[in-house]
Write a structure and sequence with these properties.
2 domains, HTH tetR-type domain-containing protein, mainly alpha, HTH_TetR, DNA-binding, 9 helices, DNA binding, Homeodomain-like_sf, Tetracycline Repressor, domain 2
Amino acid sequence: MAPAAHADGRSRKERAADAAIEVIAADGLRGLTHRAVDARAGLPPGSTSSCFRTRLALLAGVLDRLVELDEAVVAAVPDAGWSTDTPDQRAAIVDMLTDLLVHWLGPARSRTLARMELYLDATRRAELLPELEAANRRFIDRAAEGIRRTGVTNSDQMARLLIAHMDGLLYDALTRPYLGGYDRAALREAIDTLVRGITSPST
């Protein structure tokens, strides 16, 4: 029999994975233990171990949960309607991408921190690479399709450039907050510059 869902609709496994994301965001991967996740989730001792038997299984579970939660974000990014023919159309694309950054630095900040920790850890753990690659591929493919509709021929390359720059903005905002300049207006200016470069006739 499957374990009963929590009052908020999440299963015990989902609660453990969500708590693990928060632990990683707060304490880094060195703070990630089954006991710490139980405490963060408010679960009885041993609950996380029953869902994820090993540390590697727990890390894989975190990745699965990150992918699941970000699916809704990726699905909300249209792969049609991208056009830079008019200033208003360009502004709509810039606003959409800026909204993503604001989301990842605001409501989804813990997920962003955990994801970046896992990116670095994956350079030492080949087991984690396939899921990270799959998650990135979905977003790149959607961005590439949108960029293709603006008339850019090397859209896959430009999509990778777009994602790399957006990840760079996220990394800089999270690791160097003392530099400031990462309110919505500053993020929008950076994205506007990026979109202009990617969709310029020379590309």
